[in-house]
Design brief:
binds iron/sulfur cluster; single chain; 17 strands; Glucose Oxidase, domain 1; about 375 residues; TIM Barrel
Amino acid sequence: MNRIKGNITNYTNFIIGRFDKDNNICTKDRIVYCTKKPLITVGIQGYIVPKGCAFKTNKPLLEIEGDVPFKNGDIISISAEGIVSLIWDNQSPHNALYVTDICNSKCIMCPQIECAQPRYNECLKILDHVKLDSNASIGITGGEPTLNIDKLVEILSKIAKKSPKQQVHILTNGRLFKNLDIVKKLASVKNLRVSVGIPLYSDIAEEHDFIVGVKGAFNETLQGLYNLGRMGINIEIRTVILKQNYTKLKDLAEYIYRNLPFVSKVALMGLEYHGNAETNYNLIAIDPLDYKHELFEAVRQYVRYNLLVDVYNTPLCLVDSRIEEFCRDSISTWKKSYTEACKSCIKKEICSGVFETSFKHSENIHPIKTIQNQ
Ligand code: SF4
């Protein structure tokens, strides 16, 4: 869980700070969890208190019911609605800046709940608070991060200044990169290792456009991919697997090999049943066990073509064991969970598990007890 809600008083504007249960006075900009007003309040941005423990203060104070799920040092924010969100976990390799809620596509399986808020300025503030490790990749996600390319470049430049040579992976639908000037702006940021993750769902334009919910999206994305390739930007193609495209995975591998040989790698991805994917469950859902053969064949095809391929978000018990080495522990730490069956599974340590955020999980998940019974 990365979010809790409570009753807020004295709120003036967006608060961001370091969560601190011990009121360590050496920590600046801290949001302190306490049951009574601390003696020393210098550097405190706001308070979180259990219900019934509110005290007099002119700083923001949030009263909550139940436990706080945050650790000392986590960077959290508090909104005007009293929602506390975990925005940076210093111990996680999966931190991301969520730069906007707004998107120009309407994918049938998008897990994001649609709002209409840009968050670029919040992310610039977040960067003032976080420690960056140039060896761990930072994600940039949305909505569609390229909708305000100037703000995106401002964020990237700030990262480059704070942590030169930082790895940054931008998740984008790639459509706006059909404009070469936008790609040039992205490429103008120096001292950063930037890669982009761009979805391609089918080798047939109409099928891709149906999944994206926008006519012409396939052609725009392809133009974007060629412009990115021309400017030497690292590209990962991302293919979410659903009922509409699982039989075509091998054809798509063929298409990518023939038409996009400059991409660095391909990710084949299981679904997170949240947002639109929950609403459209009956239309799009397919159990990984039911596309086990197609996934195996697609991976084999990428390997034949010497293209790097990873399988994301897919439990090991649902894949052909011959492609286990391609399966990544890919679900962000705060979204990852395991089922009851996982308790006795020998592969738990290396398995991606399941999305905690999915409203439903595969009924075919079963513990792997021995190397053979997969
Ligand atoms: S039982 Fe759980 S841990 Fe084991 S492979 Fe399946 S999902 Fe992964």
